[in-house]
Amino acid sequence: MTAQAPFTGPTAGILDAPLVPAKVVIVDDMLPNALLAAAVVERLDGVEVEVFEDAPEALARCRAAPPDLVLLDYVMPGLDGIAFARALRDGLDGEFVPIIMVTGESRSGTLAEAMAAGATDFLRKPWDETELEARARNMLSLRRSYLELRQKTQALHVLATTDPLTGILNRRAFSEAATAEVDRVRRYGRPASLLMMDIDFFKRINDGWGHAAGDAVLRTFADHCRKHLRDTDHLGRLGGEEFAVLLPETDAAGALVLAERLRADLAAVRVTPDDGPPIAMTVSIGVAEAGAAETLDGVLRRADAALYAAKQAGRDRVLLADARAADGVA
After folding, report:
1. Catalytic residue positions?
2. pLDDT at res. 1
């Protein structure tokens, strides 16, 4: 089997998504008013407008697929603008969607009431077309800035937690995730196991085929591990050719089955560099089930000792750690 795993970086796709039209929702129980507003907003470039007379229907649609701007009438039967704005904010789980509240109300306190309910801007009837267009443009710009900031924040999080070569968790992120799982073992008595994995004779690969080939082997290794893992499992690169997997809700017997499956799969892999013959790899794996009162450091030490024993015994094998050490028995 030939396997290569090209990887374009942990933030690939986050910041280069194609531009899509901005979605504007107009909610007004008076359809002629809504259509007049839609005709003005549609003058803006790259905008799609959807009009709703029925406020509950509009609310359900906005919560299911948040638009980029809501133009909302203040007075509507059944569900008025204030209740709509509050319900929308509560249903967006922190996502920012600008709301322009539109009303013919002239009493004092209307603006403050609308803003307190979650409106971002306020427009009094009868509105001026130029003003409506300008306010809609400003709100869409605000929404665009929010989305760009959110994308950059997501990219920074990925960079901070991901190994740039393989796309899996880096050492720090793996330690944080694994610590939480081992703490859960101590708190609730649920099983969890740890695999410590080391690619056999990896230095020979780097020395014989070059670092580019070594990188291809590391990426392929990580990709094949991912194929065997669940979404709840945590795979991390601890450094160099050393990897670890934390398996929640998995006892030693289940971890051994998975580790042996991984070992056999990787032994059959051939990585084909751009300018060289296929490269074979094998892996040595140490397995340890977390003890009821054990810390992550303790589980890591036992799994690492089992890994060392597997390498001393000839490599390309899986060994289980001594469970007695988890209870403080030498």
Report:
1. 241
2. 28
Residues with Cβ within 8 Å of 330's Cβ and at least 6 positions away in sequence, in order, are 324
β-pairing verdict for 279-280 and 270-271: antiparallel
330 C-beta neighbours (distance < 10 Å), count: 5
The tokens 């948040």 sit on which residue?
66
pTM above 0.90, yes or no: no
Cβ-contact 117, 88 below 8 angstroms: no
Contact 24, 136 (CB under 8 A): yes
Domains defined along the chain, listed by start: 22-159 (3.40.50.2300), 171-327 (3.30.70.270)
Q: Do residues 41 and 132 make contact, with C-beta atoms less than 8 angstroms apart?
A: yes
Write phi, then psi, for 234 (nearest 5 degrees): -120, 115
CA distance 146 to 8: 26
Q: Which residue in 230, 248, 238 sits closest to 194, CA to CA?
A: 248
- For 232-244, how does the pLDDT look when each residue is reduced to its tens digit (9 = 90+)? 999 999 999 999 9
